[in-house]
Amino acid sequence: MHNRGKLLGFVVLLGLGLALLIGTAGTIGTGNVGIRQTLGIISQDEVTPGVYLKWPLISTVREFTAKEVVIDLQDLTPKAKDNLSLRDMDISIYYKADQGQIAELQSKYSGQSQYDGETKQWLPAFGLLHRVVRNAAYEEVAKVDSLVMHTRRDAIAGAIRDNVQAELEKNDPKVFQVTRVVIRSVATDPSIEESIRNAVANQKKLEAMTIQTEIAKKESEIRVTEAEGISRANKIIADSLTREYLQHEANQALLKFAEKGNTNTVVVPANMSVAPLLNIPSKQ
Fold it and tell me: Which residues are CB-neighbours of 116 under 8 A, at least 6 positions away?
């Protein structure tokens, strides 16, 4: 019985020893860094990727990602420039933190990092970015009228990105990089959506009327061109009809008239200055 107790004690001690031994080492994945905390004090030297050692029980190492992180903001309801609130707005923002300054971020913004249970990694200053992005979204949406919000999504996303980057640079220059912002959806109030549909319909109607006006204008220009052509032709003809030419044509007509053997009557213009040729048939 006594020996069995010793054996059990040995197994327990061996298990504790193995646990302590395992607790003295760990690994950091590529693209990440480790933040060491000993007795509550955060070391400012990041643990680089690979195997690391630490003091068991009194020291911990958390793995932080230095890769691109996405923050999804759901169900935002910012007010537009015309003081009308959006029904729903969803935004995704992508950012990276400089891996050489993540330890300083952890010390400066204690409690702002978030643990990702899926990747088993910590996301640096996640809470800080979430707050800054939300504020920037409300600020930029307030600069645009709700009726044109759906046509300005890319511009608003770019403005949010610039706003967030500028705000982060104020307190932490060259620490964060906002890589992109995506506005996944924008849903306005139903009354606004009806106004948008009416505005689009009116715009299409205006475009159709503009095309019809251009067609009518072109047709009118064609008719004017044709009329100008006819007018010029008539003027050329009128300018060519001199008195002498008209007299010549009249003489030619009278000559043909007189050559017909059965002609008895000829109508002579009153202002004719040349006697016409007459063919008076002889009496039988």
Answer: 65, 122, 123
Ramachandran area for residue 75 (φ above 0: left; ψ -120 to 50: alpha; else beta)? left
CA distance 227 to 247: 30
Sign of CA dihedral 38, 42, 43, 47: positive
The number of CA neighbours under 13 Å toward the Cβ of 243 is 4
The series of mean pLDDT values per 10 residues for the chain, 284 residues long, is 57 50 75 91 91 83 94 93 89 95 92 92 95 96 88 94 96 95 86 62 72 79 77 69 65 68 57 53 53
Asked if 65 contacts 122 with a C-beta cutoff of 8 angstroms, the reply is yes
DSSP 228: H
CA 113 to each of CA 45, 88, 129, 130, 217: distance values in angstroms, whole numbers, following the listed order:
18, 27, 10, 11, 66
Q: Answer yes or no: are the C-beta atoms of 148 and 64 closer than 8 Å.
A: no
* DSSP 8-state code for residue 110: T
Residue at token pair 């590529």 = 30
What's the predicted TM-score (pTM) here? 0.61
Helices (DSSP H) in 39-141: which residue ranges? 102-108, 126-141
Contact yes or no for 77/87 (Cβ under 8 A) = yes
